[in-house]
């Protein structure tokens, strides 16, 4: 979307009830007057800063004048507006349209979290199943050396596995080592 179309879209928003005060409009006009290449001539700047005319009229005339001059002039107006009234610049209707995502576009942030939306309970359940399978594999192996290693691991894990579960596992391992 060209800047002149955006300015036409934002014109009502900018000229409506006291969105821009007189000081901000004067700063914007002065900035447009001093930008290289000069967007507004000295005469035009004086016309748009004339305190005898109402602010609404001056601002409407300025916006229409910039639209007639072309896209580059409108772009410089938006730059001056961003510098002098950033909050208002961010609230412009054309900015909100630009910020809305295209429905056909893939949102990579959303896609990244889509795989991880199951939460911590799912993670703990998967981890418990994996740990149980590993423990079962070590315990079912007939080598006594593996059972001794499993006993050492279970002996040092009172924090990870509850006290009652640990004692049951230790009893099971002792029974397995005797047989």
Automatic annotation (TrEMBL):
GO cellular component terms? endoplasmic reticulum membrane; mitochondrial membrane
Q: Which residues form the CARD domain?
A: 1-96
Q: Which InterPro entries match?
A: CARD, CARD19, CARD_BinCARD, DEATH-like_dom_sf
Which GO biological process annotations does it have? regulation of apoptotic process
Q: Does the keyword Endoplasmic reticulum apply?
A: yes
Annotated CDD domains: CARD_BinCARD_like
Membrane spanning residue stretches: 121-141
The primary site where this protein sits is: endoplasmic reticulum
Recorded protein name is Caspase recruitment domain-containing protein 19
Q: Which organism is it from?
A: Cettia cetti
Its gene name is Card19
